[in-house]
Every structure is written in structure tokens, then in C-alpha cells.
Design goal:
Quinone Oxidoreductase, Chain A, domain 1, Rossmann fold, 2 domains, seven-stranded mixed sheet, six-stranded parallel sheet, 15 strands
Length: about 325
């Protein structure tokens, strides 16, 4: 098969290459998937670049997320799974066989049935973003009847956080940086959308909803002041991304606001919570409640350009098509 791989961390143009490799075979409890689309997330290019390095044995095929069709089964896997359309999550977590290849092998629980009405593009966009969004939303219980603020409501995590929160019965407020992104957040289900660059952004949020019960945050240092201004006592601010430099924590302001700060990294989330996320995401997919982001596609041969495009901070998702 053809696969993108790297043997050391560094810039995409220096370490990524496409190579012919032996097609992997599934072991006990595993499935092999012919990959139709592979999604790139920040965690993929940060690991490859070395800013968040993870150990690997000899080589690494990148990308956690993807979609395709199961074409081989390991021992103990239900034969009915052969030929099943699936979406993949955390394929490269502690394993060589990421989705930036024509085939990938994963434990069968990480290959989730993809409904007939869901595209491969949508399936390849779920994984890390949708599961991160789910844990951010529900790590402290249900959000029905609550008001949720999603920072960066047009990003991948933000998009699915808006959709999952709205589905769960929350009132959703999203912050964005442009009219284009505002329209994306509204289409996803945000009841109120505010440009966080506006001087009175906090005032606009309080005028619309009074205050918020939960904040899904991607830039804690940049946005903490706004978050504290709109947070109700007892609310939770959940952050899932790290900025280039660590923020200073205004302890007294956090005490005065009576908030809980929670930090999320998907790799450390308990298996039961990940399985719960998969169940909820699958139900939302079946109901048609999750939608595609704008997509830009690259062939596998252009993997370097794909990573560089992902690092540039695109609107929507960068996908690689291995076949």
C-alpha cells in the first residue's frame, strides 16, 4: 500500500514522505479499513512537528481520524462487520497505523458504523473534534436547560460542540471572528453569535442570555477575561487547547466568579467516557444532527502541502484522500 510516514519529528517538508509499504493485517480484536478519507487535526501536525511529541517505534503513519470500509477482520471479530462503512477515532494513538494511508488497522471499537446518509467527509471529520466536544460538554453532567458558550464556534471542535449542545437541549452562544464564521455557527445551531473582537462582546452575551453555565474554550489566556465576565456562579470553563505561552491565572477574579476550571486532553479520558461519546455521536449521526464543515481535499501524494495547509489555520477541515 501507499502511506505517508515519518521516522523523526520536524517540519512537514523535511520529515514526511509517501512510501510503498506492506499492507497491515489485523490482529485479534482488530479490523482493517480501506481508507476513503483521512482527517488532519492540530494534534496530528503538532506531534509530527515535535511540539507535542509522542513516542513511536521506528516510523509513524499520521492522523487519528478517517472513514472507509472494513475489508479484513482479526480473530474474534463478528464476521458481519466485513464490508461495513465506518468512521475511525484515535487510530494513531500509541500505534503505527494512522489513517494517512490506503489501509489502516485499529481495534474494532475504534471503527464505528457510519450511517448510509453520512458522507465519508463527515465521518473523517468526527473523531478527535467531536469526541473532544462531547467530553467538554458532558464531563460535569447534562447540559439540558443550561446556557453554553462555545468559543470559536466555527472551528472543528466548536462546530460539533454547538451541534451536540443544541441536540442535548442547551441554549448555545458562540463566539467567532468573522461574518462567514458567524453564519457557520448559526447553521450549526447557535441561538446567539457574537464577534469576540467587538469591544462590548461580553455585554452582548449578557444582554442576550444573562449569563452562561458552561464555556467550551480553545484560547484560555486570550478569552478568560470575557469568560469570567459572563460566567454565572458555579459555572465551568473547560479548555481543550494550549496556547503558545501559558496564561497568567487571575486567582481573585476566578474566586469572585466562583468558577470551575477544567482541562481536557482526549488521550487521558477514561475508556468508558470515550465509549459514551461514540454512542452519543453515533445517535446524533443517525438523527442527521451532525453536519459537515467546509472541506479542502489533498491527494496522499500532496501530504506535505496538506499538513502545511492544516498548520495555517484553515476554515473547515483538511482531508487527505489516500486512494
Amino acid at each position: 500500500m501507499k502511506a505517508a510516514r515519518y521516522e523523526r519529528c520536524g517540519p512537514a517538508a523535511e520529515v514526511l514522505r509517501v512510501a510503498e509499504m506492506e499492507r497491515p493485517e489485523p490482529g485479534p480484536g482488530e479490523v482493517r479499513v480501506k481508507v476513503e478519507a483521512s482527517g488532519i487535526n492540530p494534534t496530528d501536525w503538532k506531534s509530527r512537528g515535535g511540539s507535542t511529541p509522542r513516542p513511536f517505534d521506528g516510523f509513524q503513519i499520521p492522523h487519528h481520524d478517517g472513514a472507509g470500509v472494513i475489508d479484513a477482520l482479526g480473530e474474534g471479530v463478528d464476521p458481519a462487520r466485513a464490508g461495513q462503512r465506518v468512521w475511525l477515532w484515535m487510530a494513531a494513538a500509541g500505534r503505527r497505523w494512522g489513517t494517512a494511508a490506503q489501509w489502516s488497522v485499529v481495534p474494532e471499537r475504534q471503527a464505528v458504523p457510519l450511517p448510509a446518509g453520512a458522507s465519508a467527509e463527515l465521518g473523517a471529520s468526527l473523531g478527535v473534534p467531536a469526541m473532544t466536544a462531547h467530553w467538554c460538554l458532558f464531563s460535569d453532567g447534562p447540559v439540558a436547560g443550561q446556557t453554553v458558550l462555545v468559543a470559536g464556534g466555527a472551528g472543528a471542535v466548536g462546530h460539533f460542540a454547538v451541534e451536540l449542545a443544541a441536540r442535548a437541549g442547551a441554549q448555545v452562544v458562540a463566539t467567532v471572528s468573522s461574518p462567514q464564521k458567524a453564519e457557520m455557527a448559526r447553521k450549526a445551531g447557535a441561538a446567539h453569535v457574537v464577534n469576540y473582537r467587538d469591544a462590548d462582546a461580553a455585554g452582548q452575551i449578557k444582554a442576550a442570555v444573562g449569563g452562561v453555565d458552561r464555556v467550551i474554550e480553545l484560547a484560555l489566556g486570550a478569552n478568560l477575561g470575557l469568560d469570567l465576565e459572563v460566567a454565572r456562579p458555579g459555572s465551568t470553563i473547560v479548555t481543550y487547547a494550549a496556547e503558545a505561552s501559558d496564561p497568567e491565572l487571575p486567582v481573585r477574579a476566578c474566586m469572585t466568579a466562583n468558577v470551575v476550571l477544567r482541562f481536557i486532553l482526549l488521550y487521558g479520558v477514561a475508556a468508558a467516557a470515550l465509549d459514551h461519546a461514540v454512542t452519543d455521536i453515533s445517535a446524533a449521526l443517525a438523527e442527521g444532527k451532525l453536519t459537515e464543515l467546509p472541506v479542502r481535499r489533498f491527494p496522499l501524494a500532496d501530504i506535505v502541502a496538506a499538513h502545511e495547509a492544516a498548520e495555517a489555520g484553515p476554515v473547515g477541515k483538511i482531508l487527505v484522500t489516500p486512494s
